[in-house]
Hints:
By secondary structure, the chain is α/β, with parallel strands linked by helices. It has one domain (3-403). It is 46% helix and 16% strand. It has helices at residues 3-34, 38-63, 111-120, 142-148, 158-176, 222-235, 249-258, 281-284, 287-293, 321-352, 376-381, 384-402, and strands at residues 69-75, 84-86, 92-94, 99-104, 128-133, 152-154, 189-190, 195-196, 209-213, 264-272, 299-308, 365-371. It has an 8-stranded mixed sheet, sandwiched between helices. The longest helix has 32 residues, at 3-34. Pfam families: Acyltransf_C (PF16076), Acyltransferase (PF01553).
Amino acid sequence: MTALGVVKTVLNLVVFLLGCLSIVTSQTVGIILSCGNREFRQAWLAQTKEHFIVLLTSVVNFASKSPIKVRIVTDSKSIPPSRIRLDSKGRLESSMPGGTVFIANHQIYTDWVFLWWLTYTARLGGFVYIVLKASLKKLPILGYGMKNYDFIFLSRKWETDKVVMGNQLASIDANARGKGTVAGKEPMKTTTSKDVWPAGEDKSRTWPYSLHIFPEGTNLSANTRRKTLAYAGKVGRAPFKHLLLPRTTGLRYSLLKLRDTVDEVYDITLAYSGLKASDYGQDIYKIEKVFLQGKNPERVDFFIRSFKIDEIPIGKEEETEDEYNIAQKKFEDWLFNVWSEKDELMDNYYKTGSFITNAEEPDRYSTVDTVLRVSKLDFLKIFLVPMCLVLLGRIIYQLYCLFQ
Length: 404
């Protein structure tokens, strides 16, 4: 690394750390100012959550040697082209409903950053929920901030995770109906296995959400490839060429919990320029190289389509054992079919550099080209509250000195 590269890396690290401190400071100030007003607290924390994806995107951009190109292909049968567009300055804008679930293949550690950025372009970056390892909530500063965001922390023990996930999703669903804690409500019944929230909807107090899930559970790597081959043999499924086999339990459970409020399920296929079919993205675009050394793909490719919840065979939440087995099989077949189509898209991408090569339906697919970026004003907002605190402290100090 050159001397200039070292300076750039140090500056990037300083900006990231200061940004994290600023965001956590802003969170704390908002919690204090809310004085128990839950709607104020929710709105304030949502703003700081958006600040976090703005910070992450800015750090990735600053570290990168050149602007990261973004190409988004949408299936017009499920997503009208007007939903993904460019504004007058060439920046990406998108429109999404208030209740969405994203499902995507998992190639590199920063997949979730690009998905979150996509939600940011719909002005919903403050309402994203992601699933993380439970150990991450112990991280200094970041752990505190992520807990305030109500991210879902799992231990990978389903009996424990089912309760944690179920209660948090039920809370998200209740808030989306205006019947949750943000509206001043409490669970009608709480047991060791689940919380039960009031039924109905108060449209004047609803809150949006976007839950992001990687059904594969982990990145594609040499090790996880071996594990998925073993899993394929266990469940009697043929392995995919470019993807891991998806796990169905957590996704189906999530959709069941959110079925009353989820408007659309976005099926997103992610691919990165510079990778060959034989490569493992996580080995090339390592997280420390992405954020500190600017080792980023030149272009991020999205293929997006959506499903209405009633198009997905999720079954019902209360089931007998036989009903559960039948419903689980139907959902598994649906998800594996989605992944099979996703695998074909990846095969096209590795062969041609594009997801879509079929010229028989030229009007079916819409393509938007842009770059990964955020508003400069949104970036400055990250530091607004700490700057105001410094200014207030200075004024108080000067007044103190004046009257001494």
